Q: What sequence folds into this?
């Protein structure tokens, strides 16, 4: 009897096999779920720190990169240049004034030149030689009446040399610009004189040469029997005056 009671009591207090299995399953689930929750909490908790660290790393790497220059589109343009230099006038020269000294060819285009260059002083004379032009320029400079821009239209009436040009440029030392007009004349000194004037432009930075000879050679109808002089105030006179004025403007 007591044995039966004891067995009954044990049976009543001891979990069944099915209950044991259910308890084991619950414990296993807790063992899996808890670590997952812990990991999730750690990830959530450190997410801000990771973001900050990542941001700092990104900033540091950006600072380490060299800055690149911005690219701008540039257009190309074509321009012409000249070696002629314009300088402030020295003693004896009047800033803003133009003086022209020439021979009989300048007499032919004097009026158009005065029209194209307002305020210019033109002094042309028949059969004038290079040295005579030097004398006139010397006097004007001494009287403080010489323009800072000087136009020289000489050498039609005889040959000149590099020494003649050097002497002229010595007189015109202090001029802002010196403009030599080359010649078109049916004489053997035409080409040598023009070569001397062209060489002066390469030796003196203030010198410009007006190439009248080339333009004149393209228009033989502009000239009379001598092939040198122009009809006063005619087509050729206006063309030469415009050619000279273009170098000043």
A:
């Amino acid at each position: 009897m007591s044995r039966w009671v004891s067995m009954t009591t044990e049976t009543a207090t001891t979990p069944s096999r099915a209950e044991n299995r259910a308890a084991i399953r619950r414990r296993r689930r807790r063992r899996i779920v808890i670590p997952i929750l812990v990991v999730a909490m750690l990830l959530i908790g450190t997410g801000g720190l990771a973001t900050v660290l990542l941001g700092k790393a990104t900033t540091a790497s950006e600072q380490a990169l060299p800055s690149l220059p911005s690219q701008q589109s540039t257009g190309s343009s074509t321009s012409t240049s000249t070696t002629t230099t314009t300088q402030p006038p020295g003693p004896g020269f009047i800033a803003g004034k133009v003086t022209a000294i020439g021979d009989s060819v300048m007499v032919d285009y004097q009026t158009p030149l005065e029209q194209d260059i307002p305020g210019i002083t033109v002094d042309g004379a028949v059969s004038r030689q290079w040295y005579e032009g030097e004398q006139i320029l010397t006097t004007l400079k001494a009287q403080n009446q010489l323009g800072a821009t000087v136009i020289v239209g000489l050498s039609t009436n005889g040959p000149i040399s590099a020494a003649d040009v050097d002497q002229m440029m010595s007189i015109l030392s202090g001029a802002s610009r010196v403009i030599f007009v080359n010649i078109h004349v049916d004489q053997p000194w035409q080409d040598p004189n023009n070569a001397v004037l062209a060489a002066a432009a390469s030796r003196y930075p203030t010198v410009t040469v007006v190439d009248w000879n080339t333009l004149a050679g393209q228009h033989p109808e502009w000239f009379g029997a001598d092939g040198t002089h122009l009809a006063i105030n005619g087509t050729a006179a206006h063309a030469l005056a415009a050619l000279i004025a273009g170098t000043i403007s």
